[in-house]
Amino acid sequence: MTRRALGKGLEAIFAGLGTEVVNPQTGALVHELELISINPNPYQPRREFEESDLKELADSIGEKGLLQPILVRKHADGYQIVAGERRFRAFQLLKKSTIPAMVREHISDRDMMELALVENVQRVQLNPVEEAQAYEQLANACGLTHDEIAAQMGKSRVAVTNTLRLLKLEPSVLQWLREGKLTAGHGRALLQSQGAEQIKRARAIIDATLNVREAEKSAKQSVPKIMDPNMRAFLDELRSLVGMKVSLRGGARKGVVEIHYMNRDDIDNLIRLLRQGRAL
User: Fold this and answer.
1) Are 63 and 99 in contact (CB under 8 A)?
2) 78-83 and 38-39 strand pairing
3) Is 258 a catalytic residue?
4) Which residues are CB-contacts of 4 (< 8 A; sequence separation ≥ 6)?
5) What is the structure's pLDDT at 218?
6) What is the distance, to the nearest Å, from the Cα of residue 229 to the centroid of all Cα atoms in its chain?
7) pLDDT in tens, 72-93
8) pLDDT tier at 179, thresholds 50, 70, 90
9) Rounded to two decimals, what is the model's pTM?
10) What is the DSSP string of the chain?
């Protein structure tokens, strides 16, 4: 079955889901539902709701009323929110007992998950960790590939994959991403290190207010490269032969060998060794 493209707009998505339930008493499509009968969307990717934003929304609703009903689905003896959790929470702040809602039947768990994700991406910016967790949920629970998630979200596959990679960061670093102390770009740069070193670098980025380019440069400069065992053996043998410090820039195929001398005697000894080698 061909899946919808989530980037096409919420209205187009909602139009193809479920059946609207008409209020049997009034014949209206919008119902006044008791707040206590409504539960949040279990697939809601947004974990944190700013109190100041909710207060601002509540003030607006208190002054102008609710401009758009929330959307719910029937579930057990009550309802679950499909879209509109911020409006629902604002009504709770206003101490309201009921809220206008449109009720739909036959909305699947998969559709609930996708709708919650697209509503947040399009209407309220998720933090990088929430977005990564939402993509992970689509991949694990819905079996979507990175290509399919990208197509449905209107993003590139690389963008989706890079976002998911952020979940490999240390827990404390993930929390700084949630709090906005670090950006997704910082997070990707920090993936070059692990454990305590990653946390140390993250703190340094925050303390020095480094931008992403500076963070990437810092990470590259301090990440040790694993040397090929054969090249390491070659350097050890050369150091032993010349009795001087030897370093290598490059790899097994191409590079530069540097021999560090301290005085004229070191140079004379090196020339003698090279001549002996040529004579052999």
Assistant:
1) no
2) parallel
3) no
4) 12, 13, 16, 114, 152
5) 62
6) 36
7) 988 888 999 988 888 999 999 9
8) confident
9) 0.55
10) -PPPPGGG-HHHHHHTSSEEPPPTTT--SEEEEEGGGEE--TT-------HHHHHHHHHHHHHH--SS-EEEEEETTEEEEEE-HHHHHHHHHTT-SEEEEEEEE---HHHHHHHHHHHHHHHSPPPHHHHHHHHHHHHHHH---HHHHHHHHT--HHHHHHHHHGGGS-HHHHHHHHTTSS-HHHHHHHTTS-HHHHHHHHHHHHHHT--HHHHHHHHHHH-PPPPPHHHHHHHHHHHHHH-SEEEEEE-SSSEEEEEE--SHHHHHHHHHHHHHHHH-
For residues 204 and 218, is the Cβ–Cβ distance under 8 A? yes
85, 119, 130, 131: the active-site residue: 85
| Cα gap 265→114, rounded to integer Å | 73
pLDDT at 67: 86
Lowest mean pLDDT among 66-70, 77-81, 147-151: 147-151
109-142 per-position pLDDT tens digit: 877 877 777 666 655 567 889 888 888 877 887 7
Integer Cα distance of 41 and 112 in angstroms? 7
Give the pair of three-digit tokens for residue 268: 């004379």
**Residue 52 burial (10 A CB sphere; 0-12, 13-18, 19+):** exposed
Q: Are strands 255-260 and 98-105 parallel, antiparallel or unpaired?
A: unpaired
Rounded to an integer, what distance in angstroms lies between the CA atom of residue 109 and that of residue 41?
A: 10
Q: Is the pLDDT of residue 169 over 70?
A: yes
Q: Pull the structure tokens for residue 74.
A: 């029937």
What pairing do the DSSP bridges indicate for beta strands 98-105 and 19-20? Answer: antiparallel
